[in-house]
Amino acid sequence: MTNKTESMTMTKSVSQINYKPIFVIGLLFEALGQILLAQGIEFVYALRPIDFAHWSLLIGVALLIPQLGQFPKSIFSFIGVPILMIGIVCIIGMCVLDFIWWSQSTQEIRNEFAGHLSQFPAIWKPFIKTGPNFLNIGLLLLAFNYLKDHKIGVYLIILATLLVYFGNFIPSKLIYVYLLTALGYALIFIKTQTKTTS
Fold it and tell me: How far apart are the first and last CA of the chain?
């Protein structure tokens, strides 16, 4: 009986951990990765001792994971969490491929590797072309959980998602996408926390 009570207490305390700041920090890491990528390919390939740009992206999506089980139980979470998980997996895969590109000694080898991969849609499409966009769709769907009480934060995330698909005229648009998304979720979580504690 004591073991069961301790187990229930531990489960309850784990579920009460506030992962919201970690989630927002993860989005800021995504923005940092995009800022580094915006400096150009030569800058990224010259980074030492590691590829800081793609490590930032990798750490960023990893920091999103703990919050996934903490979103409200709703249709938006039921659809949004799996879509966000697909996006996370695709970005992890993209980072692994980019680490391989970064490790090559010459641009010729990198071009040859890219040409080889582009012939395999099962790799190229999910990890390079379309897969990472699932992250933004998942983030948008999860934000709809808070539309009733936190409109400004949700509107910022809607704007960020529109930039993904219609902001091609904006240089380095993904920097703004992740900064707006981070700001949107920060506003949502701050208001949610204030409402819970009051």
Answer: 35
The kind and range of the H/E element at 165 are helix 151-166
Q: Assign 170 to helix, strand or coil.
A: coil
Q: Is the peptide bond before 49 cis (omega within 30 degrees of 0)?
A: yes
Going by the DSSP 8-state scheme, the letter that residue 189 receives in this structure is H
pLDDT digits (tens, 9 = 90+) for 61-82: 999 999 999 999 999 999 999 9
Q: Where does residue 56 rank: exposed (0-12), middle (13-18), buried (19+ CB within 10 A)?
A: buried
Question: Which contacts (CB < 8 Å, 24+ apart) does range 173-180 have?
Answer: 174/30, 174/34, 174/37, 175/31, 175/34, 175/35, 175/38, 177/34, 177/136, 178/27, 178/28, 178/30, 178/31, 178/34, 179/28, 179/31, 180/156
CA–CA distance, 162 with 196 (Å, rounded to integer): 31
pLDDT tens, position by position, 46-63: 999 999 999 999 999 999
Q: What is the pTM of this model?
A: 0.86
Backbone angles phi, psi at 169, to 5 degrees: -80, -10
Q: Is the backbone of residue 21 left (phi > 0), alpha (psi -120 to 50) or beta?
A: alpha
The secondary structure of 5-29 as a DSSP string is: HHHHHHHHHHHTS--HHHHHHHHHH
Q: Which amino acid is at 63?
A: L
- Residue 2: CA count within 13 A, CB half-sphere: 0
C-alpha neighbours within 13 Å on the C-beta side of residue 96 = 10
